[in-house]
Design brief:
The chain contains eight helices and five strands, in the order H-E-E-H-E-H-H-E-E-H-H-H-H. By secondary structure, the chain is an alpha/beta fold. A five-stranded mixed sheet has the order 3-2-1-4-5. Strand 1 (23-29) and strand 2 form a beta hairpin. Helix 2 packs across helix 6 (162-183) and helix 3 (88-94) packs across helix 4 (96-112). The longest helix is centred in the C-terminal third of the chain and has 22 residues, at 162-183. The protein starts with 9 loop residues before the first helix and ends in a 43-residue tail after the last helix.
Length: 252
């Protein structure tokens, strides 16, 4: 699907037509950051949900002002929405995949407290990180706040599926706000601009000052003279800019 086209509601409607009363889209932000939380957004739609908000795209294709302007329309458009987080200490304790699961189930728990429980969750990508593993290592998961509904994965779901795109916008905006606030405590690292990702200024500060309590200390963070860590991946891969939108800088 060309990135200059808006996402569609085709998959959502197929799932609703097949008997699912509430369909959730879910997307994560912050997996590849060096500092701060990993955040998971969720949006719910049902048979009554109308046309998607004008200008909705995958959050990585939008400028920060465009994302912020979409947050309230996305909340009004969806039946319910929430964002869950797992902090750097939790990422260090249980690993990034389990931390993603914890953040996702926290978002679902927020909806459940409002009486909103999806019949199915659609995740962006090919990997189901939300469903707890059904093996002897599953006991290593922290206690999850809710039962996880059935999960379906969708390749390039943030580009193709409106409800996932909405979740990506909410998660990105909320996590960015957290990193801007945290930047006040640690000004040298430039989190207000890089949002905790491996930008040159952030890496230089790590080499000079070392990590803070908000860094993911189990990751191979750079120290004096080291190159950027191989574990840390950029938030975005450059793609063509869609009409009417501006591709955000990494961490923007």
């Amino acid at each position: 699907m060309p990135v200059n086209r808006p996402p569609t509601r085709q998959l959502e409607r197929e799932l609703l037509d097949s008997g699912h009363g509430l369909v959730a889209g879910m997307d994560e932000v912050g997996r590849g950051a060096l500092a701060g939380p990993v955040s998971v957004g969720v949006c719910l739609v049902d048979a009554s949900t109308g046309r998607l908000p004008r200008g909705l795209r995958d959050s990585k294709l939008l400028t920060a002002p465009a994302r912020e302007a979409l947050c309230e329309p996305v909340r009004r458009w969806s039946v319910g929405s929430a964002v869950g987080h797992a902090g750097p200490d939790e990422i260090d304790a249980v690993g990034i995949i389990t931390a993603l699961r914890l953040a996702g189930t926290r978002a679902l728990a927020t909806l459940a407290a409002q009486g909103l429980v999806p019949d199915i969750v659609v995740l962006d990508g090919i990997h189901d990180w939300l469903t707890p593993p059904d093996d002897l290592f599953g006991a290593l998961d922290p206690g999850l706040p809710v039962l996880v509904p059935p999960v379906r994965t969708q390749v390039k779901g943030d580009l193709r599926c409106a409800v996932i795109a909405g979740a990506s916008v909410l998660a990105k905006c909320e996590r960015d706000g957290i990193m801007v606030d945290l930047a006040e405590q640690h000004r040298a690292y430039g989190w207000e601009a890089n949002k905790g990702y491996s930008a040159p200024g952030h890496l230089a500060a790590l080499r000079e000052l070392g990590p803070t309590e908000l860094h993911r200390r189990t990751w191979r963070l750079p120290t004096g003279g080291e190159a950027a860590p191989e574990d840390a991946v950029p938030e975005t891969t450059p793609v063509p800019v869609p009409a009417g939108a501006v591709l955000a800088r990494p961490g923007a």
